[in-house]
Amino acid sequence: MKLFSSNASPYVRKVRVLIREAGLTDRVTEMPTTTTLLQSDPALVAANPLARVPSLSRDDGPTLYDSRVICRYLDMKAGGGFYPEARLWDVLTIEATADGILDSAVTGIAYEKRLRPPEKVMEEWIDGHWAKIARAVKVVNDRWMSHLAGPVDMGQIALGCALGYLDFRHDQYGWRKDCDALADWYAKFAERDAMVATAPA
């Protein structure tokens, strides 16, 4: 299997962390790819018409894309465990919350600042997306900490990658404010070998 990847993408990082946590490093070859909204990599386009990373090329079927699809597939390949049946809906909800944080952080804030001329950046748009992020982080801190205390699952991986991206691109907003429990959890989770190995440069 070949993973079209980008070191800076938090969606790719989810997959890369899972690969390491699940012991699949010898079965997946990472293919660093340079692709942007304005110029797509031709090899990636051939594999995925949306030209997005992550994309997972398989020998026995069509390319898979979207980090949640790829992670479910790799979890199945590894024998399960990162989407435990007994806690499935909680894990999926935490993963969806983490991906929602990323959606606002990437397309809502980072692209707004990166792709628009400074005079056309809409601060109200950015503020609205940060409000979504801040609410989601606070809800995890207030309601979901007990679910982050068990064995590593995909919800934890997704959340760890989302919080890591906030530090990487949006540290100035200070997501840790009034979220001490989550901040403590993340400090420990970020020390896992798979997280250290995939940290964005």
Shape: globular
Helix content: 40-55%
The domain count comes to 2
Largest sheet: 4 strands, mixed
Count of runs of 4 or more consecutive helical residues: 8
CATH architectural designation of the largest domain: Up-down Bundle
Structural class: alpha+beta
Biggest sheet strand order reads: 2-1-3-4
CATH topology of the largest domain: Glutathione S-transferase Yfyf (Class Pi), Chain A, domain 2
The percent range for strand residues is 5-15%
- Distance from N terminus to C terminus (CA atoms, Å) equals 25 Å
Mean pLDDT: 95
How many β-strands, per DSSP? 4
* CATH top level assignment of the largest domain: Mainly Alpha
Low-confidence stretches: none
Helix-strand string? EHEHEEHHHHHH
Describe this structure in words.
- The chain is of the alpha+beta class and 201 residues long.
- It has 2 domains: 2-77, Glutaredoxin (3-Layer(aba) Sandwich), CATH 3.40.30.10; 85-192, Glutathione S-transferase Yfyf (Class Pi), Chain A, domain 2, CATH 1.20.1050.
- Helices cover 55% and strands 6% of the residues.
- The chain is built from 8 helices and 4 strands.
- The chain has a 4-stranded mixed β-sheet, with helices on one face.
- Strand 3 and strand 4 form a beta hairpin.
- Helix 4 runs antiparallel to helix 5 (123-143) and helix 5 crosses helix 7.
- It is globular and about 45 Å long.
